[in-house]
Amino acid sequence: MKKKAIIISVVIVAVLAAILIPLLCIPRPVTGKIVVIPLTGSITTDQSSLLSGPVITPDLVSHYLTRAEKDPAVKAVILRIESPGGEIAPCQEILWAIERFKETKSVPVVVSMGGTAASGGYYISTEADKIVALPTTMTGSIGVISAVINIKELLDKLGIQIEMFKGGKYKDMYWGFRELTPEEQEIMQALIDEYYEDFVAVVAEGRGLSKEEVRSLATGQIYTGTQAKELGLVDELGDLDTATDLAMELAGIETAMVEYYQPPRVTIWSLLGLADAIKVRLSGLSAQDIILLEILSYSYRQPIFLYQSQLHPLVVNCP
């Protein structure tokens, strides 16, 4: 009798195992989609070329966000940012595009910082619900920079004389053919200060800090991800997987399919940059000639949100 009871017990356990094990092995149904949007390069309005490399433009960001907005399966968005910053107006346009997307789609937005997400790269991150950085990420660099290059002595050495005709007292102050007057320097600094205060206000609102707290951090200094977390500039330390887990948590879902948006393919317009470079090379111009042409091609030295170690036409690093 005892032996029979043992056999029955074993049979019952085996039957239960046969029923339960397959059920436990069945994967949980995917309840949504998380999209990862790559934002890599300097922030500008110009399209990328084979020479300039990848860039982040308002049109590109709007393209990505519109695609995510139209997909009903999308439950959260991760912006993977790798950028030293760039021009101010595109930074502001991108920030507004993210804000509009959040209002329209009503899904969480998480920023995952790569090796660098500084200055303008940090500026566009502040609209996210959460920011995740690597411990070694270079971020911060909250500030504004601009330079008006005075090439008068260079032109004199080259024997080049420029006759300037203008309508407006300050119209030629940005051209770099003469020194700025003290009054013009004040005008330029007032412009920088206005953009600086805008940057401070954006960070204060996005991070829930007072403007005074942000000003104490907004010295143009680079912070590591670890330092940024201690200062309240980012929320978590981790990689893209950390950002994905956080996005699912914010979206209230346990499982999700992760879709990685791919950058647009190279177009005929991006090839024009290469064609222009080949043309310049074949012209026999020296490196100094090319640099001079680059300087002369920028008529207005606009302020920028840019991490200073990155080369830019408005920033000259001298030994």
The total tally of domains equals 1
Report the major sheet: 8 strands, mixed
User: On the 0-100 scale, what is the average pLDDT?
Assistant: 82
- Number of E-state strands: 12
Oligomeric form: single chain
Name given to the CATH homologous superfamily: 2-enoyl-CoA Hydratase, Chain A, domain 1
CATH topology: 2-enoyl-CoA Hydratase, Chain A, domain 1
Order of helices and strands: HEEEHEEHEHEEHHHEHEHEHHE
Global shape: elongated
Number of helices: 11
Please report the distance between the alpha carbons of the first and last residues: 96 Å
Structure description:
- The chain is of the alpha/beta class.
- The chain is built from eleven helices and twelve strands.
- β6 (109-118), α4 (120-123) and β7 form a beta-alpha-beta unit.
- α6 packs across α7 (211-217).
- The model is unreliable at 311-319 (pLDDT under 50).
What is the compact description of this entry?
45% of the residues lie in helices and 17% in strands. By secondary structure, the chain is of the alpha/beta class.
